[in-house]
Amino acid sequence: CTSGLRRSLESVDDETCTWSLQAGEIDDFCESIPNHERVKFWDLVNKIERELIYMKGVTNQSQRSIDAIEIFCGPQSTLTEQVQKLGGIAFRFGLNQGDLQSTEGRRRLFALVLKYQPRNIWMSPTCGPWGKWSQFNSQRSLVAWDKINKQREEMLSQIALCLVLCRHHHRCQRHAHLEQPKGSLMIRLPYLQELHRYMLSAKPDLCRAGELRDPQNHALMKKGLHIMTSSQRTFDSLNHLKCSQDHDHQVVEGSTVWQGRPMLRSEFTENYPRKFSRL
User: Fold this and answer.
1) FRET partner for 238 with CA separation of 20 to 30 A, picked from 36, 78, 142, 267?
2) pTM for the complete prediction?
3) Taking the mean position of all CA atoms in its chain, how far away is CA 116?
4) pLDDT for position 165
5) What are the backbone angles phi and psi of residue 175, rounded to the nearest 5°?
């Protein structure tokens, strides 16, 4: 019976599927095996949806909308900086503004989103537990496997928040963008399959999209990104900017020196290059 149903689903036209489900409407067949993590995730989504609904009732909308809110960013993120330098209005919401794994922190964020109605929300949640190094390390021992899976479970609230914000902006006909390093398992989670119904996947490489270079030896660093975006214009601007394969790369592993202090290259590449943020 299940295989017959699967064949029926596969025969449905992809374009029809894209328009048949809206933000928040879940394809019941995408998650057929109940488990603890799945139950926890949807409990978090429902909780965060209620927090957003509550803040709608107590937040007055500003007469002027802003261009962007950047979430899960550092205090000197280049994306917000470049929007401001280009004459736009953008706010950051990182750890300095509030803990987004707490109800209080999320309510502060929702107050900003609802008041200023940003035309764009850019989200770059913690990638550590989902990245390639974590995938490699989780295979080394049972202890490492348990540690990384515990970290992933702790990060579910960030992913649930991203889903709620993508839904909200889709319903309001504004744009949302979710960024992860290429190869991150986060965007592949079955819980986020809904996003593929109304968002596009851009996969640029920062050696070309941002001229990302090692600050010590100035060699280009490839670092691919996977950006889910609701904006066709953003997709068209970024997706073709893949490595041209005509230059050597500095590997991301190891250390470098930035502004006179040693730093892991993986930490250095967490900040977008100026050229990428400008684009």
Assistant:
1) 267
2) 0.84
3) 21
4) 98
5) -100, 140
